[in-house]
Design brief:
Number of strands: 11
Shape: globular
Bound molecules: zinc ion
Strand content: 15-25%
Helix content: 40-55%
CATH architecture of the largest domain: 3-Layer(aba) Sandwich
CATH superfamily of the largest domain: Vaccinia Virus protein VP39
Radius of gyration: 21 Å
Number of domains: 3
């Protein structure tokens, strides 16, 4: 699916010759300098030479009804804490008390853990069924099924010492606008904590969820650092999740394609991207039909068995993989708002960044 460099240059030249403007990076506002890195269902992925972000264009951000239909089922289970949550709760540079707002809090698992650790917690989440679960299961009181914009408009004077958003930024069509809202919710000197999928993680095949309309941007450590620094934040922690045995086993399993799982499954389970073109009602019916299909259960068990079978090999080669610098799925960051936004442009020379962006792309899509 990756477009060879020659084709990419041709695409750039033809766009320029036809006077077509290349899309603008949603993090730094710089127009893309080259053609797409990849095309997926008519949507192109571009790399920003200035800040190193990869972004899809054109995209439409799905609404709450779509997420509720596509992620149905999660309102029935309490999720374990994710690596970003655990990094924050263990981060010695993070505050351990204060008013905390979690944007995109899902079923409320992190909010409950933060509350139990001593924070005064508030959560907002698009998906009403996840909010219902958070209230009923964890007894969370201050949790709203509302967008960040509407929360801000209805609570204009409310400020928080910590604003968190874990695996939320990559779903945003306009990350700059999203960060502006998060920043408006912060008290002076407040902290941001977040995580995103690390574009530089170890993978053999692109993860099916890492495409529009689910994920609209792909972040590297450099892109995330530049984005936050440019917006007046000081980075306190920036950590790539170390490669774990289960992730390594999953990557090895996805590289080893036997076709057995697909044959057993019959109908291929829908990916979030194929659900993108459906109405929420159609999404609901499709997910329900696949969930109730016995062959799908068998296929899911086989896929899990295949990953389990890779665990001994993963354990054996894990030290080597880590030595080679391969990392796990997530990128975690803790940042603190500076009292005065820096007036100078904090970017390095462009040539340096261009090389880096290209390198990152080749590493990301194997
Ligand atoms: Zn950019």
């Amino acid at each position: 699916m990756t477009i060879p460099m020659q084709t990419r240059k041709d695409a750039t030249d033809s766009a320029k010759a036809n006077g077509l403007a290349l899309p603008v990076c949603p993090a730094c506002g710089e127009p893309a300098e080259a053609g797409p890195l990849e095309v997926f269902q008519g949507i192109s992925r571009y790399g920003c030479a200035r800040c190193d972000l990869h972004f899809w264009h054109p995209v439409i951000m799905p609404d709450g009804a779509w997420y509720e239909a596509a992620y149905q089922g999660r309102d029935r289970t309490a999720m374990p804490l994710e690596p970003g949550h655990r990094f924050f709760l263990a981060d010695s540079k993070a505050p351990n008390r204060g008013r905390l707002l979690d944007i995109g809090c899902g079923v409320g698992n992190f909010l409950a853990a933060a509350r139990d650790a001593g924070f005064d917690v508030t959560g907002i989440e698009f998906d009403p069924s996840a909010v219902r679960f958070a209230r009923d299961h964890y007894g969370l009181q201050r949790i709203f099924a509302i967008s960040p914009e509407d929360f801000r408009a209805s609570h204009p004077d409310e400020k928080f010492e910590i604003v968190t958003f874990f695996e939320v930024l990559e779903h945003q069509k306009d990350p700059q606008r999203f960060l502006n809202i998060a920043r408006e919710c912060l008290a002076p000197g407040g902290f941001l904590a977040l995580s995103v999928p690390n574009r530089e993680r170890w993978q053999k095949r692109a993860d099916v969820l890492d495409f529009p309309p689910n994920h609209l941007t792909r972040w590297s450590p450099a892109a995330l650092r530049r984005f936050l620094e440019r917006n007046g934040f000081e980075i306190l922690s920036l950590r790539q999740e170390p490669l774990g045995i289960l992730r390594a086993a999953h990557v090895l399993s996805s590289a080893w394609r036997t076709g057995l799982v697909t044959r057993v499954a019959g109908e291929t389970p829908p990916t979030l991207s194929s659900l993108a073109v459906m109405s929420p009602e159609e999404v609901k019916q499709t997910v329900k039909r696949v969930e109730e299909e016995p062959r799908q259960h068998l296929a899911a068990r086989l896929a899990r068995w295949k990953t389990s079978a890779m665990v001994p090999l993963a354990a054996l080669i894990l030290p080597y993989l880590r030595l080679r610098g391969y990392t796990g799925l997530y990128l975690y960051c803790l940042a603190r708002i500076r009292q005065v936004t820096p007036a100078t442009d904090m970017f390095e020379p462009r040539g340096h960044l261009l090389q880096k962006a290209d390198g990152g792309q080749e590493k990301g899509v194997v």
